[in-house]
Every structure is written in C-alpha cells, then in structure tokens.
C-alpha cells in the first residue's frame, strides 16, 4: 500500500514533464547559421553557409537561399529534393551562384556567390527542408577597398602648386591632408574634395590642395568609416615637381615630333598623287612614221585620263590632202581605235 501511494504522484509528474518537453522533442531538425555576417569585395567571391541537423540521407533534402533585405525578396538558389531548379534564381544572381553539393554530406548548405556587386549586400535567409523545415539568417557586406591613389601635381604660378589625390572605393571615404609638421586639421580644411560614382556604384573620390613651392612633404590619407586611414600617398616638394616638369617637357617634345611626322607623311602622299596624275595627263600629239613626209597624226581627245568604258580615236591627216580625189582622201584619212591597255601606258 505504501508503494502504491507514491506511484500515483510519480506518474503524474512524468506526464507533466513529457507534456512540457514535447515541443522540444518535435523540433529535432534545427538549422544554424555558421556566421552572423560575411564580408566580401567587389568582383570577388564569397561562400555563405548554414548547418542542419544530422539526417539519415541527404539525397532528397531541399535547400533554399533568399535575400530578404533590402526589399523586394530575391530568390538566390533552390535545390528541390536533390534537384536544382535554375528558373528559381532571380536574374540578379543568375550564373553567379552555385551550391557546394559535396558539403551536404557534412550537413552543411553552402553557396558560393561570385562576381560580387555592391548591390549584393543585405540579409540572406538559409532554409533547409527534410520532412521538417527550419531556417536562419545572415548578413553580407560587400565593399570596395581604396587600393590605389593617383597623384597629380599642377603648377599654378611661380610660387604655388596644386596637389591632387584620386582613388576609388566603397563606402565613401574621407580625405585628410598633413605635412611634416602635422598640420592636419589646417590643411584638411583648406582642401577641396569631390566625388562621383562609376557604373559599379563605386565612389571616385578626389581631393585637391594648393600649397606654396617650398621644401615640404605632404600626405593625403583616405579614411574609412571606422576612422582608420586605409590608404595614403605622399608628395615630396620640390623633387616631384622637378620630375613632373621633366615628364611634361618630354611629352611636349614627343607630341611635336609626332605632328611633324604626320605632316611630312601627308605631304609626301599629296606629291605622289600629283606625280601620278601628271603621268596620265595630256599627250597632245603622236607622231607616226610614213612614206609621205607631209603626213601627221593628231589625237582627237588629247589622251586625257580615261575610264574603262571610254575609247580614244586617232585621226591621220595629210597636208597633201588638197586637190586629191575623194578615194585618195579616204586613204590618207584613217581613224584608229586605241585599246584601254595601250592608253594606260601613257
């Protein structure tokens, strides 16, 4: 009887425990994001993944990747029960995304996104379905680091020069100036900054500073949004100014030589064409040997340049024509047709 008194309450406690833990027992299939966020660079590639609970077989598992923010939602990839569905992928990601299927055996749903664009940044959702379903979210941040600064020096007067720095990147960077005396704030306030965006959405940031022609070093720095200088370039005055002047004079000399060569070639071409035309121009008369000393040959067309569709005729006439009969005149006056090949020789 004592045993029976303690058995009834214990059975009630077990039932209550099962009732409370039943939802947890049902949710045996869980998806977890491998990273909270991912960083990538423009034109590069990145892999993003999520892990899911162990299952007996992955041959019929379904994997869906979407970008849910910023709106609208874009479908990135879909594996439907082991079969890819390319039509599911939004044109924005078409031919740039693939699933690393070998990772499914490790219970990982990993995609590789290539040729990254700034517009790929956002919140992504990884959904895995196997009888049950679960999902997790992760963040992708695409950047374009400032990697190269284009320096330019321009002379404004005998005592002033303009220093210019230009670089491309994303997000928008702030440009500061300093010298060997660390007058950063003063020089930065004097500088003139501007920016535009190219077709990829990358910022082209330019900063200009006017300084005097004194021996000094000036440095421009591109500062990222975290306050750290990601890229710097230094001007050494007046050394670099002298080098710039040498290059400028060199380019000017080369330009003059090129113009002279082009002009000379053009002049030679004109002279050659004129000489060729002169060779084919007017041949006023052609003499022909004849027993009759008074016979001469003249051209009715002066042998001007001819086309292939036109012929010339030569008429032979005699000074002793007068007083002769018509038959004799016909003999003394003959017309000959010159073929184009003969005319071309003249």
Describe this structure in words.
- The N terminus and C terminus are likely disordered.
- This protein is flat.
- The chain has five helices and 20 strands.
- A hairpin with a 2-residue loop joins strand 5 and strand 6.
- The protein is α+β, with helices and mostly antiparallel strands and 346 residues long.
- The strands form five sheets. The chain has a six-stranded mixed sheet with strand order 2-10-9-4-5-6, with no helix packed on it. It has a four-stranded antiparallel sheet with strand order 1-3-8-7, with no helix packed on it. A four-stranded antiparallel sheet has the order 11-12-15-14.
- It is a single-pass type I membrane protein.
Features of the shown structure:
Immunoglobulin-like, disordered C terminus, 6-stranded mixed beta sheet, 4 domains, 346 residues, 5 helices, 25% helix, alpha+beta, flat, single chain
The fourth-level CATH homologous superfamily of the largest domain is Immunoglobulins
Question: Which strands sit side by side, in order, in the main sheet?
Answer: 2-10-9-4-5-6
What is the architecture of the largest domain at the second tier of CATH? Sandwich
CATH class membership of the largest domain: Mainly Beta
Radius of gyration: 45 Å
The strand count comes to: 20
- Intertermini distance: 143 Å
Spans of 5+ residues with little confidence (pLDDT < 50)? 1-12, 14-26, 244-252, 281-288, 299-311, 341-346
Encode the helix/strand succession as letters.
HEEEEEEEEEEEEEHEEEEHEEHEH
């Amino acid at each position: 009887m004592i045993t029976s008194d303690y058995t009834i309450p214990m059975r009630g406690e077990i039932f209550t425990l099962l009732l409370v833990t039943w939802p947890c027992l049902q949710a045996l299939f869980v998806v977890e994001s491998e990273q909270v966020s991912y960083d990538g660079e423009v034109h590069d590639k990145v892999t993003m993944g999520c892990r899911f609970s162990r299952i007996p077989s992955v041959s019929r598992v379904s994997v869906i990747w979407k970008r849910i923010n910023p709106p609208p939602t874009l479908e990135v990839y879909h594996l439907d029960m082991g079969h890819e569905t390319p039509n599911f992928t939004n044109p924005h990601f078409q031919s740039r995304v693939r699933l690393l299927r070998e990772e499914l055996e490790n219970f990982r749903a990993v995609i590789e996104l290539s040729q990254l664009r700034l517009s790929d940044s956002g919140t992504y959702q990884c959904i895995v379905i196997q009888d049950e379903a679960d999902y997790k979210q992760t963040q992708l941040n695409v950047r374009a680091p400032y990697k190269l600064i284009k320096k330019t020096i321009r002379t404004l007067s005998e005592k002033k020069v303009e220093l210019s720095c230009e670089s491309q990147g994303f997000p928008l960077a702030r440009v500061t100036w300093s010298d060997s005396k660390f007058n950063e704030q003063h020089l930065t306030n004097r500088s003139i900054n501007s920016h535009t965006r190219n077709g990829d959405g990358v910022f082209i940031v330019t900063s200009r500073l006017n300084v005097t022609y004194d021996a000094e070093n000036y440095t421009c720095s591109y500062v990222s949004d975290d306050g750290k200088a990601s890229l710097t370039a230094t001007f050494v005055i007046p050394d670099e100014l002298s080098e710039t002047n040498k290059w400028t004079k060199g380019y000017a000399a080369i330009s003059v030589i090129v113009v002279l060569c082009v002009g000379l070639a053009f002049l030679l071409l004109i002279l050659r064409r004129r000489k060729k035309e002169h060779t084919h121009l007017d041949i006023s008369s052609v003499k022909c040997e004849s027993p009759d000393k008074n016979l001469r040959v003249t051209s009715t067309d002066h042998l001007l340049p001819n086309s292939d569709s036109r012929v010339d005729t030569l008429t032979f006439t005699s000074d002793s024509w007068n007083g002769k009969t018509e038959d004799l005149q016909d003999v003394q006056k003959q017309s000959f047709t010159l073929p184009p090949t003969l005319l071309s020789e003249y």
